[in-house]
Amino acid sequence: MKERKQYGLMTTIAMIVGVVIGSGIYFKVDDILNYAGGNVGLGMLIIVLGSFAIVFGSLSISELAVRHSDAGGIFYYYAHYIHPGLATSLGIFASYVYMPTVIAVITWVGAVFTLGGQSSLEAQILLAALYLIVLTVLNIYSKWLAGLFQSLSTLIKVVPLLAIAIIGFFWQKDFPAVPNVTPISVGWGWLSGLVPLYFAYDGWTVVTSIAPEIKNPKKNLARAFIFAPMVILALYLLFFYGLNQILGPDYILMVGNDAVVHAIELIYGKLVSKVLLLVIIIAVLGVSNGMLLATMRLPQAFASLGWIEQSKFAKIDLKYQLSLPASFSVAGVTLFWLGVHYLVSKFNLLPGSDISEITIVFNNLSFVFLYWIVFMLYRKGVIQNKLTGLISPILATVAAVVLLVGGLLTNFRNVFFFLVFCFFFCLIVFLYYQKKQSKQKSK
């Protein structure tokens, strides 16, 4: 039976925009601004450079996506072109390190917006843990409610963004009174601004898994991976500029993650600001919900493929249509990483950063394998498009290296330690896979 193509260009663009725009931009503006030394123009340049890196990365990977209609997703590309062990190690890394750390931090942000920036870190972590437990229960035992919440959050997530971006563009009033300390010279330290920015751009690779269902994927996927980042870029630039027009860089740096809350209260008053704040909280938790939903299914998929030896994970519960042990393992590990995030924040181990940003840096470095594959296919003549086969993988690789440098510049010792941890985690999983394969061959 021929597979039905159901997604057109506009739908594909909307899906990418919907996946990428979530919580990151709402609480990363002050971090980007801080690395830019309070220079709004330099901050906007960082946002532009970040979007180009996503464009070139996605254009490269689109060449792999359109060639594998039977098994989409980036982990299949690792297995098919390089080694199943690499796919296993990076897949388990995504399931139990990368995605859970991002989910933990995003859920914590939802708790911060709920309680306010002046609340204690302990209260924020406890509420975030409660949110994670509720989302886990919804995704396992009440898919209808989880789906309804996800649909609601997707529909409203851009509202606060536009509410500030449009008004801020025309804002003429004076900034709130604070001591003027910016801009300051940061040298090459502004490259570190790409690290929190990548948090706001994260998630674009998810769309490769639906490549087989896209109409005319050879053209539409590549076009979507150009136009979608441009839409996201325009929204982010307008939001960043608008927020700075309303509050000023000094005030944003002073209030940090609460900048969005202060801006909407200044524009719309306390009553409307409370409604918009609720919208932001729903949007943020909607991102957590969507990522948790997707991540819960990864260990089951890897177990069914034989990449990990865990029969309980491979078995799908007919009543709930997912693997309960696999789902609970992801939820448990996410709560663990929330605890790690608490310790890192409590003792300021990653000033101006967090554990999720480090895993994002490592995850983007792993894409270099895919860029190399695309480049080799171009050299062999399999890929003939010079933009997607030659220029894009080279520039995307450069972007990944620049992101690594930016991450190390934030706090070399601690960032290096976390990156080494990510590397050894993947190495141990790879060795586990090799040992398992050797046992099977000897039987």
From TrEMBL:
UniProt KW keywords: Membrane, Transmembrane, Transmembrane helix
Transmembrane residue ranges: 7-29, 41-66, 86-111, 123-142, 154-172, 184-201, 221-243, 275-294, 322-340, 360-378, 390-409, 415-433
Family annotation (Pfam families): AA_permease_2
Membrane-related topology note: Multi-pass membrane protein
Localisation: Membrane
An annotated Gene Ontology molecular function: L-amino acid transmembrane transporter activity
GO CC annotation: membrane
Gene3D superfamilies: Amino acid/polyamine transporter I (1.20.1740.10)
Protein name listed in UniProt: APC family permease
Organism the protein comes from: Streptococcus minor
